Amino acid sequence: MTMRKPLLTLACVLGLSACASTPTHYYTLIAPAGQSPASPAQAPFQFEMQPVLMAVQVDQPPLVIRQGNGSLAILENERWGAPLGDEFHDALTGQLERRFGSRDLAGLPKQADEPVLSVRTDVRRFESVLDQYALIDVVWSLSLRGAGAGPGSKRQTLTCSSVIRQPAGVGMENLVLAHQSAVATLADNVSRTAAQWARQPSTRCPS
C-alpha cells in the first residue's frame, strides 16, 4: 500500500505534464492576398460590409469538427485566431474589397454622389469534416442605396443563398484551406451578382 500512493501521484504528474505540453495551433480564414484575384475595374458603388451572423454551434475560437455519428467535437488545441464569426467577416471583406476594387467603408463617411452597396451574410451552416470536406451554407443580402444619404434616397434589396462544398485533403491545415476556398467562391458569387445587379436591377440570384 505504501508504494502505490507515490506511483499514483507520479502517474498523475506525468499525465498533467503531457496535457500541458500539447501544442495549440491557430488558423485563419483569411487567405494570403496573392491568392485572391484583383478586380479589373472599380465597382459602380461604394461598399460596406455588415456584421456576420454565424451558426451558434461553431461561433467560437476552437474548431468544431463534425463526426461520422452526427456528433460534434470541439478541438481546444486547434483554434481560430478569433471567434469564427469575426474570422468569416474579415475573410469575406478582404475578398470582396479586391473584387470590387474599393475599401470597406462600414462606419466611415461616404461620397454623397455615389451609390452605396451593403452586404449582409447569415451563415446557417459551417461544416467541417476532417480529411473529407468543408461546407458553408450562407444566406446573403445586398442592399443598394442610391446617390444621396437622405432618408428619401432610393433603396433596393436582393436576397440570395449559396451552398458551397469544397473537398479537403488530409489534415487540419487542408481543411482550413478548403474553408478559405469556400469563402473565395462565396465572394465570387456575391461580387458578380452585385456588379450585374447594380447595372441591371432585373438581375436574379445565381443558380
Automatic annotation (TrEMBL):
Residues 27-190 form the ABC-type transport auxiliary lipoprotein component domain. Keywords: Lipoprotein, Signal. InterPro entries: ABC_trans_aux. It comes from the Bacteria. Gene3D superfamilies: ABC-type transport auxiliary lipoprotein component. Residues 1-20 form the signal peptide. This is Lipoprotein. The lineage of its organism: Bacteria, Pseudomonadati, Pseudomonadota, Gammaproteobacteria, Pseudomonadales.
